[in-house]
Amino acid sequence: MSELPNCETLLLELVEGVLYVTLNRPDSRNAMSLAMVEELRAVLRAVRHDQGVRALVLRGAGGHFCAGGDIKDMAGARARSQGEGRGDAYRELNRAFGSLLEEAQYAPQVLVAVLEGAVLGGGFGLACVSDIAIAHQGAKFGLPETSLGILPAQIAPFVVKRIGLTQARRLALTAARFDGAEALRLGLVHFSEADDQAVVDRLAECLAQVRQCAPGANAATKALLLATETENLGSLLDHAAGQFAEAVLGSEGAEGTLAFVQKRKPSWAQ
After folding, report:
1. Is the CA virtual torsion 75, 77, 78, 82 positive or negative?
2. Would you give the DSSP letter of residue 179?
3. Which of the following CATH numbers is that of domain 10-211: 3.40.50.1580, 3.40.50.11320, 3.90.226.10, 3.30.40.230?
4. What is the pTM of this model?
5. Three-class SS of residue 102?
6. Which of 10, 123, 142, 187 is deepest in the core (most CB within 10 A)?
7. Which is nearest to 37 in space by CA: 78, 87, 94?
């Protein structure tokens, strides 16, 4: 099992192959500081090659998921920019969050986002890179950047991929707020639940389903699905055929087919 990093802005708990990662800055509605970004990236690096971690559950402490970027960090970047190339500190701060979104997008584990309270700006971006998104119906989603005179620079590409260009344009150019039911209609989330217990129950159901799937097969399948956005179809299918052959002959394929014949659960689903 991987050694997890020590974190000041995150709470980490590993339970039965699921790593629960809780954004833990409730006084600021879990605003995304540079320290939190770097700690999240460190956690993703630590578990990247660990098949013992089947899923990552990302949520926020204190009733909110994430209210966006940390204004204090932006003020600090403003102060630093006076002593170096104009804008360099802002660029570094902004791009670090984009790197986090890239790394979360391509994490081999199933990434589940539990979305409650404020899901704004950077929190909205994190929702867009999740494999499974479960929202409380009362959650408040939005891209407030343009109302602050800035732009959702690192978030925009992931929003477009998630909900399409037409809806992304509307939301980004109006800074409109909406609830979990609208997030479900837009395809931003997969489930919108009426109350706290329903969120808990839905999360348990999704994790039980994930545990039925082989971790190696899940990781390869996730990578294959993401590759459909960038690779030529013919070469993608050629590569996928090779992966299929490897899987059939590999330990998971052997165990899965044997379990099917023997009418039992495979080892990873015990």
Report:
1. positive
2. -
3. 3.90.226.10
4. 0.92
5. helix
6. 123
7. 94
